[in-house]
Amino acid sequence: MSKPELWVVAERRLDHIEPTTQQLITKAKHLAGNQMHTVAVLFEATTDHLEDELKAYGPDEIRIVKDDRFPTATDAEIADALQQLVTANEPNSILFGATITGRSIAPRLQAKLQTGLTADCLDLRFDDDTLVATKPSYGDNIMCEIICPDHRPQMATVRPNTFVAEPADGAATVTSSTITFHPVDRLQVKTATPVVNTATTVGDASRVVALGRGAASAATISTATKLAEKLGGRIGVSRPLTDQERFTHDDQIGQSGNTIHPELILNFGISGAVQFLVGMQDSQTIVAVNSDPDAPIFDVADYGYVGDATAFMTALLAQFN
Amino acid sequence: MKIVVCIKQVPETNDVTIDPVTHNLDRRGLAGVMNPFDKNAIELALNLKDSRDDVQVALLTMGPDDYAESLREGLAMGADEGYLLSDRAFAGADTLATGYVLAQALKKIGDADLILFGRQAVDADTGQVGPIVAEFLQQPQITYAASLRLSGDNEVTAERLLEDTKQTLVAQLPAVISVRSELNTPRYPTPRNIQLSFAKPLTTWHHDDLDLDDTRLGQAGSPTIVTKVYAPEPVKRELTKLAGTPAEAASQLITALKGRQLI
């Protein structure tokens, strides 16, 4: 009997593969061991070769479906194509990135297949052939383990940057599949353009200057911006600062925002609510500056200074200069 | 034009705790409020209503009887009528079973040109119910819309922000739309609208009011099961304290970061 299949649905971002796809291939390989067959499912135009961005991560198979309509296909069209592949191959489980695209296509496919889908997962494991998905709720204050015991395939969307992509040995078998593309004429993607400000997101930055309630003044933010530039990094914020006009939920760390693991994070004026800590605790080096010696942020920090965040930041920037 | 906005009631705070004995979620004493993201969907509907004469805005929710409070709030914002789907048979539903009942209710309401959702609920954070309803109703969807306008008699144009890409989409109605919170600022109910809201129709539908397949309802109709609920525990590290004046401490930090080859 052939091994059950564990799928990662590759996501396209303009002319490239969205990085969460590669992170999920690495995780899928760890989960599969010798028990399952890992398949990256890729939809692309006839002249595309996006598989070249997947091979290095070593899935057992890259299953390609080509159609020139895929680059601008809508959620319903992709979900329809996936349903045809699922019917033909009967995978055990399907993983998507919990990106906007993944979170839009996966539930549509779930409804077609009448199966279970767990959203925005922070961990995955198998108990025998049951996928156990760990999902945050209540703004990351609570974790739930969720299973789908009686329906297949099992489905999950996984928060970007939860896992680290690692190149792997082994040549992926590249195969091609065909489906019937069913166009939905009532919805058309007219244009798709890169967002003008293409600065890296806080999730992509390797250095992060994180600001909280204790470092929220305009002057402090200005100093922090210079410090972030010096470090080649980016500013991230805890929830209170998302109330300020210049920050959005995209800048937020933790709390159903971005889970990050940069090589360095400097936390200023952040006391360390549990959802924030869980959102950044896998950072390689963690520095915390806070006036409250009992702030929980110090529990997870490698280096800590009890004192005024702005004064420390100013001193640090001066010494960099 | 008929718009139906699907809303959810959520606990007023996310600061929930786990009962140390039963390991169940302790939600005692937590009042329910309308999911804040749903107010952006209502605001969009009311904007469209303000812009032309023929727009009717209905609100739809599934939950216990006290969810009527959120419907009342939406009516006070300016919606025209509310529908509450309340039955013991609906309890324990996951996103699939919830989407099924909502879709059956939307069929009964009938002829909705636009079905709107907030981006996600702040308690469970799935954002799944909108696409599930769209699939069950075989309608096109535009999720996470950053803007939306009527661009023809029977057509909307929306912008959708992916992580680093902006899409412009055009949909022929009917369609299902979920909206980003950056789309607008929800209005507050005015005293006059609060007064008017008490006269607005609020309809409750129970199990027998809808055409339902009982195997698809509630816990039995939910493929997913929550097997464990716990509070996340941050992993502690060994802290090296930086001491002295800010300048002295900053200097110690720079030395440490150099040692780690970070600068």
From TrEMBL, chain A:
SMART domains assigned: ETF (SM00893)
Name of one Pfam family that matches: ETF_alpha
Domain Electron transfer flavoprotein alpha/beta-subunit N-terminal: 6-191
Source organism of this protein record: Levilactobacillus tangyuanensis
Family classification: Belongs to the ETF alpha-subunit/FixB family.
Stated name of the protein: Electron transfer flavoprotein subunit alpha/FixB family protein
Taxonomic lineage: Bacteria, Bacillati, Bacillota, Bacilli, Lactobacillales
UniProt-listed InterPro entries: DHS-like_NAD/FAD-binding_dom, ETF_a/b_N, ETF_a/FixB, ETF_alpha_N, ETF_asu_C, Rossmann-like_a/b/a_fold
From TrEMBL, chain B:
Name of the molecule in the record: Electron transfer flavoprotein small subunit
Electron transfer flavoprotein alpha/beta-subunit N-terminal domain span: 22-214
InterPro entries in UniProt: ETF_a/b_N, ETF_b, ETF_beta_N, Rossmann-like_a/b/a_fold
Organism: Levilactobacillus tangyuanensis
Coiled coil: none
Origin superkingdom: Bacteria
CDD domains: ETF_beta
